[in-house]
Amino acid sequence: MKGLDKELLAAARGAMKHAYAPYSRFAVGAALRLSDGQVITGSNFENASYGLSLCAETVALATANAQGRLADVEAIAVAGPEMAIPCGRCRQILSEAEQVAGRAISIYCTSADGDRVLQYSLAELLPHAFTLANVERNDAKDA
Question: Which of 57, 82, 98, 124 is catalytic?
Answer without folding.
Answer: 57
